[in-house]
Amino acid sequence: MTRASALLAAFLLAGLPAAGAAQGQETPPSPAQAAAQGQGTPAPPARAAVQDPVFELRAATTSARLGVPVTLEAVVRAPVGVEVALDLPASTTDTFAITRVEEVPRGQGGETQRRFRLEILPLDLGKLPVPLAWSFRAGQETRAVKSPALVFDVDEPPSLAADPEIKDIKGIMGARALLWPWLLLAALALAAWAAWRRRRRHVPGAAASAPVADTRPPHVIAEAELAWLDGSGLWESGRYKEFYNRLTDILRQYFDRRFAVPAMKLTTTELIRHMRRVDIDRGASQSIKTVFERADLVKFARWTPGREFGSLETKQAREIVATTTPAPAPKPETAEAAR
Asked: Is 36 inside any structural domain?
């Protein structure tokens, strides 16, 4: 082989790897080259969305008795800057009542953590779910959220009998005394009293003057009676049953005057059902239910309310009166000017 042929073969062998590299995978362009070729700069990774509030409901036990309060603790975690509030009217149902709400001082951390201690009063038997309604506010935006329900197993209340043992049969009782002489004496006394009433009725000036009817509007009468209740000192002295008796009487008399409802003769359940048929605001109907059911707990279940409920009850009663008061009729001059 001549020297010229050897140089040509070496040149060809040196060019083979370069050709293979040219036919292989291309090197990706740099960002500057990609921008020059119109491909643009790769977009940065998207930020994660703001986390939703996290709820945690727990109780020492999920077994409960009808009419016996149980304690529930609710922990709400939300991002910093989000305000959290418990919506008490929306959380109350026909199967349970919230009798006390207490907020535990919050701890420190990267998130806002609110801890609430609630007292729940079961009003029905069986499996009782307890969902809670919350209000979250971030800036001008407000959102309503319900936490997962905690289920209680409610049984009947314990027996109120002091001595459950069977007692012995009593001995033979003696003959009762005759009753007819006493009945005859009572009838004579009643006849004498009726004759005295008839005679007194015909004596001039003996009849008592009829009570003067209160001609003030129903809402004015109710406001005056609620103001008297605020200054009566019943709540401050711990006379809660008398306070609620007077409060419910004021509202019942107002409903009687305002809507011609025989409220003084109706039970709480009948009154709530009757007021739902009246054309009033839905919020007022819920407030009526809340006030009267809490009053029944004090009067019949011997529930002791917290000190903070006193001003809350009269304030809620005033809101019921204000919401159900009709708008004043326009003056004649205003109606004439409107024409």
From this structure: no
